[in-house]
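Colleagues,

Please find the record for the two-part complex below.
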Amino acid sequence: MTELPGHILDDDVIAELHAGPAGNVLEAVDVRRRYGSNEVLRGVSFGIKRGEVKAILGPSGSGKSTLLRCLALLEPLDGGEIRLDGERVGAREGRDGRLAPLPEAALARQRSDIGMVFQRFNLFPHLSAVGNVMIGLTEVRKRSSGDARDVAERILERVGLGHRKDYFPSELSGGQQQRVAIARALVMKPKVMLFDEPTSALDPELVGEVLRVMEELAREGMTMVVVTHEIGFARGVASRVLMMDEGQIIEDGPPEQLLSNPQQERTRRFLEAVRE
Amino acid sequence: MGFDVDIFLQALTSKALREAVPVSVSLAVVSFLAGVAIGFIVALMRASRLRLVRYVGWTYVWLFRAIPTIVLLFFVWNALPQIFPALAGPGFLPFYAAVIGLSVNEGAYAAEIIRGGLLSIDDGQRQAARALGMPPSAVFRRIVAPQVIRVVIPPMANDFITLLKLTSLAYAVSLREIITVTQTQIASSFRFAEWFGAAAVYYIVLVSIFMVGQAWLERRFVWTSEARSGSGGGILRGFGALGGGLGGARR
């Protein structure tokens, strides 16, 4: 069992998370996305307030990963908009009233305020753990490498990987890799963290160490959207649970209600299937 | 006539051959570097979003892989000066002609290797880099390129060795490289076995030296904490890796 040495986030970050106004940090408004003739997202709207944790459930193919990639500004929208702290991000309205994606440089700046954790970790294999965590600071935040290294080492320590900081991804277990990936995103001080099935690629015995880091982040007030199949995590940590099916949110409620007494037949069947 | 060891040794240590070696090596190195630069551009063209650009890239690879290298060399050396009189003067050295012919040819092969390298990088790598907020140039420079380089080292090394031996075709442009010199010596001595033997020895030695360099380079692209902490050794570790490669044809 990896013990976390204490707070993961810096105290000033925690204070800021608790002090800010309670508006929506991130908001999806009628988000639409299609691949060819396949409508993957058919008008998804939801908001997430500061310090909130939203869990998104749904069968594979329901569009939850696509939704997360759209929120992370990694995919253009075919309709609707995404707002970060109340301002539209990712696209702007052209003169003809149609949506046009922002140029890549502007997108990059906006993405740096949104943390993303992938199912398959996507650590950079040519960089050590500390190198993976540093690179956003040096390349995007333009911090000096000594400075970035200090910050990176501190956060690796806090996710329980201080002793593994010089190891390369190929030398780390899945759980360790995913914790490095979380640290890599956190170090950018994102306004919101997005998790795309962060434990689905892990061996069962490694799931716990990743979930513990996420629970601690939630406790410290991080704003989080988590696509997951971990019902226990959704029940214990999420403030709201959304159920997605066929590109839409079909149910939205507090965890105890949605997980114990779902209103939709589709949700009930999904939960039964997941629990088995 | 037999095989005269003395003549062989004389050939091996002859001034003529010793002077030809740097010509062959520099021709190979310059053509390789230029070819990789061409290949890089062509590989990017083949991955372009614009169809016309993709076609131009494809056509380059198709054309210059299809034309025999020696035909290219003859063309550059004999035909180009007829088409462009500016090249007819004495300033158009055999070395330049050989570099043009070989690098144009090498570019087509390098393009395919680099294209394969780019395709081998998991899209999750680019996604993770973009998600951090890296602009496209940084994504390429810091994330994609190092991984592509590692993938392309073995096929590129293979290509370089091929190219080193292809420099012998530069006798077609009367460049005084190893084979041209060897032929000249044979023309006056008629000692085929000794002189070709000596030329072969030079190629074997050159390729061997290069293989040590390759092994050393590959070591630098082993991404483990152990490889990173043990920094001593350098070229000597390259020898070790070469030995390992000879010991068992694993992989």
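Chain B has a mean pLDDT of 90.

Comments are welcome before we finalize the supplementary table.
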